[in-house]
UniProtKB/TrEMBL annotation:
This is MarR family transcriptional regulator protein. GO terms for molecular function: DNA-binding transcription factor activity. GO terms for biological process: response to stress. It holds the Pfam family MarR_2. Residues 10-154 form the HTH marR-type domain. It comes from Rhizobium rhizogenes (strain K84 / ATCC BAA-868) (Agrobacterium radiobacter). The keyword Ribonucleoprotein does not apply. Keywords: Plasmid.
């Protein structure tokens, strides 16, 4: 039996967002596997690439940009270093600090030329593929949908601070 006292206006929106998120997440995972790149590593490399040359960030800043903890970013960095995609350097080298400084927490993560080339190739292939996913929508429809989703996302992100709602990081 229908319950007229229940708020239902969100069902059409939230249910579709969940379904779309699942489809896109599965598709991205499949596409990334075909491209030979782990989504978490792509996220790390893409965030470094979006920084100014020489494509270098500190661990804490990179973790924040990837929306993950410092320990999670450290694990990603270790895998990327092993693959020759990034290198780590002491911050004191870049900040001209005294070599006597023992602050081992001050580390920079920097794209290698191989990492830069790989992320650029992967992102180009991924964007081309994902553009085809929305090709059925016209430019105005895409702009309107993007604006509506941006507004909803902003509202939800504000609720994190107001209501204490917790959102986990994503690979997007």
């Amino acid at each position: 039996m229908a319950r007229p006292d229940l708020p239902v206006r969100s069902i059409g929106v939230i249910t579709r967002i969940w379904r779309i998120a699942k489809l896109l997440s599965d598709d991205r995972r499949h596409t990334m596997n075909q491209l030979g790149m782990e989504p978490a590593i792509r996220d790390l490399l893409a965030n470094l690439r979006r920084s100014d040359p020489p494509y270098r960030l500190r661990v804490g800043e990179l973790a924040a940009r990837c929306h993950v903890s410092k320990s999670a970013i450290t694990q990603r960095v270790e895998r990327a270093v092993s693959a020759g995609l990034v290198r780590t350097t002491s911050a004191r080298v870049h900040l001209r600090e005294s070599p006597a400084s023992n602050d081992k927490r001050a580390v920079w993560i920097e794209l290698t030329p191989h990492g830069k080339e790989l992320v650029e190739t992967t992102v180009e292939a991924l964007l081309t593929h994902e553009d085809a996913l929305v090709a059925e929508l016209g430019h105005a429809e895409i702009a309107n949908l993007s604006d509506s989703l941006r507004q909803l996302l902003g509202h939800l992100e504000q609720r994190v601070h107001i209501d204490g709602i917790r959102f986990e990081g994503s690979d997007f």
